[in-house]
Design goal:
Two copies of one chain form a homodimer. A four-stranded mixed sheet of chain A has the order 2-1-3-4, covered by helices on one side. By secondary structure, chain A is an alpha+beta fold. At the A-B interface, strand 4, helix 3, helix 4 and helix 5 of A face strand 4, helix 3, helix 4 and helix 5 of B.
Chain lengths: ~260, ~260
């Protein structure tokens, strides 16, 4: 399937970046022909038909999903792994593709933990109804998990001699670099003081973020109306109380990294 | 690469089923030649060398990971998608492979939510230090998320006319059926009363579970010492207070399914 012939219908909630943004960044960097369906007239109803099982093809559990020809593909990392080879944004080599996928899935875990800082009890409840638990979870996130994930991304860059530490996988930009950019952007929005403290320890990742932001198509996209602003409905939310430095507590914890 | 020639080194925490069990089930059903490295002498040290970056190849964020030849592959869903084609446990068709992957990734999200019922604040803290939050999260899980995921799996089966609702993807058993089996087993262990209430609503999924349990290699595996018992260190834990029926509360919640 040639890029120039492939038309992608992309479905995601129309008012947030959310998980859909990882797909939008891929499509924008590739210059792909795509429609962000739910943002057009009648699009939400069209999206709901898929979620309610009224359309043929694989049943999505949740947005984002894409339709390419007759094929419906859901789950962010799976969408990216499906589209990237057709758009030239991942190498052909099987081992490098598996490596790209493992990085993307680790970013997906990271994103889920970022989301749960403001929704540690349930996505179906308001933030205000789980604020106390959110504060506790966010403290652990800022202290332990955020540095752990960011340093892992830094280490992956440092190990990639093929690109002299410029890109996460292989010699050139891939879809996982776009996703890493988005995570840094989102964290800067949601946790500005935590990020201000940690960024000097992750220079390669910060340079990667800049390199992606300067790509001509990404730069144009970020300035366009297609790029939704961060807001208090998405994954990355700015609640200053969650970004605050936690007082050091006496702790019994610290064991167990098994999951 | 032929099955008979391929030797898989599998790395996971040696005392729990955890996420590693999805990989073990695949290897067992396939009759693959594999070593569960961390359960052998010196194996934990060998595993830690990968996690600390002292081995070549892609850097795993966490176990499970596998080594096949010189290739290191991590992230459960990615490991399965990498091994299954070599072991005949997923169809060749690109759209069916994408569908298998999206189901596996949805199961991975389900598993993460199951884990977080007992660790809603942090994996690094003891259950006892987040018991109150766990009870609240588990109530939402039992009421909303568990039925939603299980009914989605039931719907996916109902829609798969190719196998007359016997398997999740395509005509025959694939790796995602093994994973669905494991989730039902784990939920029966961790949430026996919630499962007792819901199982009559998911007859196809229960029949799938039985069908997998009766596969000769799986049946032999489940009886062997290679199958670790469920315990209070893994993803699926039996805390009766988390399985209790929640009193209906007046609630402001219920909005927002976006993630």
């Amino acid at each position: 399937m040639k890029t120039s012939r492939m038309r992608v219908e992309m479905y995601y909630w129309p008012t947030i970046q959310g998980r859909g943004e990882f797909v939008r960044l891929l499509l924008e960097e590739a210059g792909a022909e795509y429609v962000d369906v739910a943002r057009a007239k009648g699009g939400m109803a069209a999206m709901m038909r898929f979620l309610e099982g009224d359309e043929p093809g694989a049943l999505p559990f949740a947005p984002p999903f894409v339709k390419v020809g007759d094929t419906v593909v859901s789950q962010t990392a799976n969408i990216l792994a499906y589209l990237a080879p057709k758009l030239g944004l991942v190498p052909d080599d099987e081992a490098l593709r598996a490596e790209a996928s493992q990085i993307q899935l680790t970013i997906a875990d990271f994103v889920a933990e970022i989301h749960d800082t403001h929704h540690p009890i349930a996505g179906s409840l308001y933030y205000e109804d789980q604020k106390k638990e959110a504060k506790r979870r966010a403290q652990e996130f800022v202290k332990e998990r955020n540095p752990k994930y960011l340093r892992w991304l830094e280490d992956v860059l440092a190990r990639n001699a093929t690109s002299e530490g410029r890109w996460l996988v292989g010699r050139n930009l891939t879809y996982v670099d776009l996703s890493a950019f988005q995570v840094v952007e989102g964290l800067r929005y949601a946790f500005p003081s935590a990020m201000a403290r940690i960024e000097r320890k992750i220079p390669r990742l910060v340079a990667l973020r800049d390199r992606v932001a300067e790509r001509p198509r990404i730069a144009a996209y970020l300035k366009s109306e297609r790029r939704l602003p961060f807001n208090q409905e998405g994954i990355f939310r700015r609640y200053p109380e969650l970004d605050a430095t936690a007082p050091r507590r006496g702790s019994r914890g610290g064991r167990k990294a098994k999951r």
